[in-house]
């Protein structure tokens, strides 16, 4: 196994172009586990740790441009206001040690349905900045996940950053694991209210072959909120709307039975999380919500 | 932060005679610190996997990928041809007549012979100059399997056409088992359960299931074998019982025992998982074959296949009671899955049956326990050893009975609690304090933890601390669906090896004067696996010999057996042996003193003499001589065996017999919060009360009780090895999917220690390591039942069980 250590982004792109099978490694929290367990033996490892800009972020007017290697602990510490859903998701990532190493680029690169960041990214809406020696492109998150542990990257492309919409309303994130910390998701749910566009977006993790949005649930809720004038009057969402939203979110799942949980449980739990997180975000939108105590 | 050690409440007990007002520091009863504590916390402790030797080779084990198959062929040629490979061994390379090992029944092949019986069974070994080379070479060994149907439960094991897991059995249980796929069967019949049932106003029955728990000790199996010039081998290894290993290793190597010299190396933990042989024989075989030192280190994945687990069990129970709450009878049938090899199954059966009634007075019982041979992973010793599974079931039964009688579950238990003098179902009287009712009273009397602790007052109103809620940082609830539950349980565990086993230990104690100061050296073969023997032995030597300086010699086989570090027995038995040897040394010291100085003071002949603070003193405190002057350059060196009271085998048909030497009791109250919609559980508090007889090291006692409590909680809410029932393959052999409690899952564990002396035991002490593991699991289950109203007849409880999904 050859270890490639580019000193700059340009060198990294050149190396990836020359060795398209090279596996990029930043925090190493996914890749090293796979290597240690001998699940894969890549011909080349492409170390991105010398490229400092990957660990930087910029807060713009509309978006946060989040470098692929910005560790989860930094997101929790510095981007709680701009990216509240992703900050909550970051809290649930493994242990403090892993949160100090791992970043969103790794979650996207691995594209496991269980990656903790995905539901928050889907709900917030974002674009993945992918680049190769051929040029740069922005891949909408909705088009990024293409299959089980597969994504829309070309073999010569690397993830440079993610352009995530700054929160224009409350966001929430819930994850079920059978332990109270340091656990792989049995299933997860992210929700973001977008008052500017009067839409709600969602994300579901570990309950389908890829991270997905609960589109029917979103469409139903958007219509119901519009129809009832909820965005203006700020009334409490009726239980029947919340329940229908939950049922549709549950229905969006296409889960499997595995050692971590049953398909039936995953559908059930996604419904519960959808109902609860909608309640929390809506209460916050109405100005009545309880704050979450910072816990890390 | 979450485990809050509480002040020890020391009740009025009857401590045995202890040296009064000893000026010797660090004696028994003091919380002296572990010598390896700081090293372990700072990462500097040398574990067995950290050893290194010049010219060392690395051993690798190739394990079966299927659970049950004939081995059609093994082709090692490609592996052998790999550069850097020094040896590839299969069954055909075993050097001696003896090819098997085993704790009691030698049914486990060192390397598979013609057939594999469980997923992960060792088939071949490789030694190479680099671990990666060894691993790759092992992957090049070609094995052709012809798969056989798998036996996975009682029905498939005892079916008329069932394949025999072991053909031609000749062990001493085969004569009394109803089927060759049953390792051992122990009935216990006392009184007339059917007749007594007629007196019952209420009868409850239950079918309970206990999942397979892993010991999950720190420091996976590892060791280093170094060939020696005399044709023997030096083995440095992390184990639980050096001499038991030695008995199994030497015959397979074709060596006399004195040519296999074993030294204990750094152990992370054991919990029963190191009682069986793992890499010991393999490393020695490779070392003797290559003439080079060979190190084998399992990773965590391999460790799940490298040791036995806790027996999963199916338990059927029937209890009856009169309407005023007195138990009338109990019938039970306990089926333990022993997996492919016997390991400790026979003894686990003995424990499960003889302790199946729990700490209750029931005169009419009909009990049967069996262990199966299956193609599931082998199961054997784990903290609690058969008593854990039974306690889970009988405590669920106690709650069912109390509910049916509309009685308080604690009062119902107290009404039926055994006491000193109570006859157990084996006919054996309990001849030391049995404060069962008192332990329950103490946990019940504790104030309840405050409600809704997740609500914290903030500057802008109330906020939620998700860490205090089910789901924790996963942020699944802010209080929605959360219901509190409270549950109680109490358990009964034996201490020491039972059923007539010659359970002795050996201690060699040396006393001499070095640089003008008396120094004691304690040498035993006791495996320090974290239980605190190294601390306790030094404390005993200080108390008995009046010295400040004690050296604990590394544990090895140059001294006699210390027995196993298991069954809560080491402080009792090896502690007893150290005390006994110290007393013998003291007698010799006094003898020398009398000879030298007897004429100068009449007290040498008339008073009871003690060694304290480096001096010989009378029991009145008068100093007679300095130890340095008594000993001068003489060294006293004594090695003695010590035994606890003998026990008897259980009768094979009636189960009667004085099978146990001592009992240990603990009670728990669990307070849980359950998210009833998502099926997630947060254990808020697990209060424990335990009788320890005498706390030789109060801090260690607290650590044992808190650790045992947490290990019991683990198997209540998350810990389980999941075996596919169709293939008998292990589905979660990693810490990614075998979940252990983290600090955020750890409840507050207030501990209430009683010290009621057992007059038969050294210092009145009681073995304590296992009892808290028993009652913690059923207490948590009872609390979850209390919160949810669900029956919950299996452990661990998964979210699916709480949400019917």
Q: Features of this protein?
A:
heterodimer; A: 296 residues; alpha+beta; Uridine Diphospho-n-acetylenolpyruvylglucosamine Reductase, domain 3; 2 domains; 5-stranded antiparallel β-sheet; B: 805 residues; Aldehyde Oxidoreductase, domain 3; Aldehyde Oxidoreductase, domain 4; 7-stranded mixed β-sheet; 19 helices
What does it look like?
- The complex is a heterodimer of chains A (296) and B (805).
- With 296 residues, chain A is of the alpha+beta class.
- Chain A folds into two domains: 164 residues, Uridine Diphospho-n-acetylenolpyruvylglucosamine Reductase, domain 3; 115 residues, Enolase-like, domain 1.
- Chain A is 35% helix and 23% strand.
- In chain A, the strands form four sheets. Chain A has a five-stranded antiparallel β-sheet with strand order 4-5-10-6-7. In chain A, strands 1-3-2 form a three-stranded parallel β-sheet, covered by helices on one side.
- In chain A, helix 2 links the parallel strand 2 and strand 3.
- Chain A is globular, with a radius of gyration of 19 Å.
- The model of chain A has no long low-confidence stretch (mean pLDDT 95).
- By secondary structure, chain B is α+β, with helices and mostly antiparallel strands.
- Chain B contains 19 helices and 33 strands.
- In chain B, the strands form nine sheets. Chain B has a seven-stranded mixed β-sheet, with helices on both faces. Chain B has a six-stranded mixed β-sheet with strand order 9-18-17-16-10-33. A four-stranded mixed β-sheet of chain B has the order 22-30-31-32, sandwiched between helices.
- In chain B, helix 13 links the parallel strand 24 and strand 25.
- In chain B, helix 9 packs parallel to helix 10, helix 11 runs antiparallel to helix 12 and helix 17 crosses helix 18.
- Chain B is globular, with a radius of gyration of 27 Å.
- At the A-B interface, strand 11, helix 11 and strand 14 of A face strand 21 and helix 19 of B.
- Strand 14 of chain A pairs parallel with strand 21 of chain B.
């Amino acid at each position: 196994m050859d270890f490639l250590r580019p000193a700059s982004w340009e060198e990294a792109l050149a190396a990836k172009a020359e060795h398209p099978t090279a596996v990029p490694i930043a925090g190493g929290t996914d890749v090293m586990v796979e290597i240690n367990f001998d699940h894969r033996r890549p011909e080349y490892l492409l170390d991105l740790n010398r490229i400092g800009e990957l660990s930087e972020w910029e807060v713009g007017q509309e978006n946060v441009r989040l470098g692929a290697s910005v560790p989860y602990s930094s997101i929790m510490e510095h981007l709680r206001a701009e990216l509240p859903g992703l900050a909550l998701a970051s809290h649930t990532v493994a242990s403090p040690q892993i949160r100090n190493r791992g970043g969103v680029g790794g979650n996207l690169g691995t594209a496991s349905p269980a990656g903790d960041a995905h539901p928050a990214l889907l709900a917030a809406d974002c674009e993945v900045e992918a680049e190769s020696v051929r040029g740069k492109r922005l891949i909408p998150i909705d088009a990024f996940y293409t299959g089980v542990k597969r994504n829309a990257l070309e073999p010569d492309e690397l993830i440079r950053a993610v352009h995530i919409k700054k929160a224009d309303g409350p966001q929430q994130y819930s994850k079920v694991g059978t332990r109270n910390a340091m656990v792989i998701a049995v299933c997860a749910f992210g929700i973001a209210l977008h008052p500017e566009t009067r839409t709600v977006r969602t994300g579901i993790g570990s309950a389908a072959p890829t991270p997905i949005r609960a589109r029917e649930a979103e469409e139903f809720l958007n219509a119901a909120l519009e129809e009832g004038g909820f965005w203006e009057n700020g009334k409490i969402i009726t239980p029947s709307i919340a329940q229908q939203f939950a049922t549709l979110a549950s229905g969006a799942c296409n889960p499997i039975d595995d050692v971590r949980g049953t398909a039936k449980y995953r559908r059930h739990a996604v419904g519960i999380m959808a109902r609860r997180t909608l309640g929390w975000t809506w209460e916050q939108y109405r100005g009545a919500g309880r704050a979450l105590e910072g816990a890390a | 932060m979450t485990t809050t050690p509480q002040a020890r409440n020391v009740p009025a007990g009857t401590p045995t005679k202890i040296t009064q007002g000893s000026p010797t520091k660090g004696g028994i009863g003091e919380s002296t610190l572990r010598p390896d504590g700081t090293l372990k916390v700072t990462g500097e402790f040398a574990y067995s996997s950290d050893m290194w030797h010049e010219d060392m080779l690395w051993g690798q084990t190739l394990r079966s990928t299927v659970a049950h198959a004939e081995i059609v062929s093994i082709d090692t040629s490609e592996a052998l041809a790999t550069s850097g490979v020094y040896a590839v061994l299969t069954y055909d390379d075993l050097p001696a007549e003896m090819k098997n090992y085993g704790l009691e029944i030698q049914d486990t092949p060192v390397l598979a012979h013609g057939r594999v019986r469980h997923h992960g069974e060792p088939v071949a070994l490789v030694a190479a100059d680099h671990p990666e080379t060894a691993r790759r070479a092992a992957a090049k060994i070609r094995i052709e399997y012809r798969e056989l149907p798998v036996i996975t439960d009682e029905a498939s094991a005892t079916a008329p056409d069932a394949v025999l897991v072991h053909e031609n059995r000749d062990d001493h249980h085969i004569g009394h088992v109803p089927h060759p796929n049953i390792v051992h069967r122990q009935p216990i019949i006392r009184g007339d359960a059917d007749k007594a049932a007629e007196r019952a106003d209420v009868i409850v029955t239950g079918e309970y299931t206990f999942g397979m728990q892993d010991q999950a000790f720190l420091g996976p199996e590892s060791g280093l074998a170094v060939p020696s010039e005399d044709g023997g081998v030096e083995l440095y290894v992390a184990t639980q019982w050096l001499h038991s290993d030695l008995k199994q290793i030497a015959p397979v190597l074709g060596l006399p025992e004195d040519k296999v010299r074993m030294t204990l190396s750094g152990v992370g933990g054991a919990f029963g998982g190191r009682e069986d042989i793992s890499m010991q024989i393999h490393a020695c075989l490779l070392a003797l074959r290559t003439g080079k030192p060979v190190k084998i280190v399992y990773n965590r994945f391999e460790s799940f296949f490298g040791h036995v687990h806790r027996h999963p069990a199916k338990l059927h129970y029937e209890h009856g009671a009169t309407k005023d709450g007195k138990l009338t009878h109990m019938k039970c049938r306990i089926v333990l899955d022993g997996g492919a090899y016997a390991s400790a199954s026979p003894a686990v059966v003995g424990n499960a049956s003889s302790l199946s009634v729990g700490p209750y007075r029931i005169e009419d019982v009909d009990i049967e326990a069996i262990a199966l041979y299956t193609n599931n992973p082998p199961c054997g010793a784990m903290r609690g050893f058969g008593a854990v599974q039974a306690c889970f079931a009988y405590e669920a039964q106690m709650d069912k009975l109390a509910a049916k009688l509309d009685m308080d579950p604690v009062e119902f238990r107290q009404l039926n609690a055994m006491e000193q003098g109570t006859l157990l179902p084996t006919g054996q009287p309990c001849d030391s304090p049995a404060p069962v009712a008192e332990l329950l009273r103490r946990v019940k009397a504790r104030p309840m933890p405050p409600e809704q602790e997740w609500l914290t007052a903030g500057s802008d109103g109330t906020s939620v601390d998700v860490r205090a809620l089910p789901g924790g940082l996963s942020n699944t609830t802010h209080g929605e669906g959360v219901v509190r539950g409270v549950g109680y349980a109490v358990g009964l565990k034996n201490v020491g090896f039972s059923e007539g086993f010659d359970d002795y230990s050996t201690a060699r104690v040396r006393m001499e004067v070095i640089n003008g100061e008396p120094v004691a050296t304690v040498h035993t073969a006791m495996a320090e696996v974290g239980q605190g023997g190294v601390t306790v032995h030094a404390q005993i030597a200080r108390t008995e010999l009046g010295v400040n300086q004690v050296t604990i010699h590394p544990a090895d086989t140059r001294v006699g057996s210390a027995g196993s570090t298991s069954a809560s027995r080491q402080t009792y038995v090896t502690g007893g042996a150290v005390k006994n040897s110290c007393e013998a040394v003291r007698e010799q010291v006094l003898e020398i003193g009398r000879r030298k100085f007897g004429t100068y003071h009449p007290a040498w002949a008339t008073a009871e003499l003690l060694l304290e603070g480096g001096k010989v003193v009378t029991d009145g405190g008068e100093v007679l001589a300095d130890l340095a002057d008594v000993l001068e350059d003489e060294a006293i060196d004594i090695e003695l065996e010590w035994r606890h009271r003998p026990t008897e085998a259980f009768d094979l048909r009636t189960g009667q017999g004085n099978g146990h030497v001592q009992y240990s009791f603990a009670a728990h109250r669990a307070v849980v919060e359950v998210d009833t919609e998502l099926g997630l559980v947060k254990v808020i508090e697990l209060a424990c009360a335990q009788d320890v007889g005498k706390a030789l090291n109060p801090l260690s006692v607290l650590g044992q009780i808190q650790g045992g409590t947490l290990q019991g909680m683990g198997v209540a809410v998350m810990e389980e090895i999941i075996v596919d029932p169709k293939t008998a393959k292990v589905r979660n052999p990693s810490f990614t999917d075998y979940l252990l409690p983290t600090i955020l899952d750890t409840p507050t564990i207030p501990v209430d220690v009683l010290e009621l002396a057992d007059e038969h035991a050294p210092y009145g002490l009681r073995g304590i390591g296992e009892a808290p593991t028993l009652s913690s699991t059923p207490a948590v289950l009872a609390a979850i039942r209390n919160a949810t109203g669900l029956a919950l007849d299996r452990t661990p409880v998964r979210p699916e069980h709480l949400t019917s999904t």
